[in-house]
Amino acid sequence: MSANLAIMVLLASFFLMVLLRFPIAYAVALSAVFCLLAQGKPLTIICQQMVKGISSFSLMAVPFFITMGVLMGSGGISQKLIALANACVGWMRGGMAMVNIVASYFFGGISGSAAADTASLGSILIPMMVDQGYDDDFSTAITVTSSCEGLLVPPSHNMVIYATTAGGISVGSLFLAGYVPGAILAVSLMIGSYIISVKRNYPKGEKFSVINLIKQLAVSFWALAAVLIVVFGVVGGVFTATESAAIAVIYSLLVSVFIYRGLDWKGVWKVMEDCVNTLAIVLILIATSNVFGYCLTTLHVPELAASTITGITSNPILLALLLNLILLVLGCIMDMSPIILIATPILLPIATSIGIDPIQFGIIMILNCGIGLLTPPVGAVLFIGSAVAKIPMEKVVKAAFPFYICMIVTLLLITFVPATSMWLPSLMAK
Length: 430
Hints:
Elements: H1 3-19, H2 24-39, H3 44-54, H4 61-74, H5 77-89, H6 95-111, H7 114-131, H8 136-146, H9 149-152, H10 157-166, H11 171-200, H12 210-235, H13 241-259, H14 265-298, H15 301-312, H16 316-333, H17 336-353, H18 358-372, H19 380-389, H20 393-416, H21 419-429
Helix pairs in contact: 1-2, 2-14, 3-14, 4-10, 4-13, 4-14, 5-6, 5-12, 6-7, 6-8, 6-11, 7-8, 7-19, 8-19, 8-20, 10-17, 10-18, 11-12, 11-18, 11-20, 11-21, 12-13, 14-17, 15-17, 16-17, 16-18, 17-18, 18-20
């Protein structure tokens, strides 16, 4: 069979199964099986490539970071970070919306998951905001959109997946690259929230107090220190990302059980059970995506895609916009991890050819995928937010539209102003 026909079998079967709502791991694996059968290759390749896909020391950081996030998220951290955020920005017009955004920035640095952020903070903040006079759809919309900050603020296991897939990317540099874009996203969402809050006359919080801020910083120090251990340990070369993640798990366990006392040992076992469920999904995606990536590589799809896209235009600005558009469309129909695993080998060479640094492209890809988590039909975080608030998803999407604009503006800034993501890594490299 010709290579073109094999490519058609691979991609057509994959997108058909995605549209039919197959679990993404099954869609990836089965389309690879069909492709190998069409080429007459032995199916033993599947087992070989799946084992190869997860046989990586760097990927060991993924389960550790997930475990750290679940431990900290279940250990009473949420309320303390909300109190800290309230001490920082609660005095503003629409103060609780600002608290929601800032708390997501803090919590994202611990969980690294938009879904965990929405479920944990949303269950506390959405009812609190509604009780204080905020509309339920606005409260839910700001909760789900601000949760994407957690994908950019390290430690994020999706950054580790990208670094492994891209090859030769420093996890420490990628971690540093996320801080400023995450802050820009937070500021843009705060501006949007403030405009809406003034228009709808949402309430202010209590007056700013330096004493209260210092008090809340002291209480939240133990939670925020977990991020410092990981980021500064990796960047400073004290230990690798995997080693830092393992240390962070032990630290998170001690803080949750003995300092904050949000977990007992029975609760720890329940947390571990939740971690295993999450890890099973993530690792099977990584394993099956490696088979899919093998098929793409052997059929020279990355080269074909690159030549096709660059054949449309040679203008770097238009190519950068086109890459963003492709990632946004993929984000609407696929989950985050498979997009990173499948699209990186295809799109990264195009990005580097127009002068986009691989680290910068990683941040661009993660934010694009994050926006995809908030858009139908797949929008996992959107579904979680709707379920937590008990309001229709369509109502949340309508209320979130102004915040989508804020996120797109942030995405364009990261794309066309490289310093937003590259300043910190370049500063630390000196």
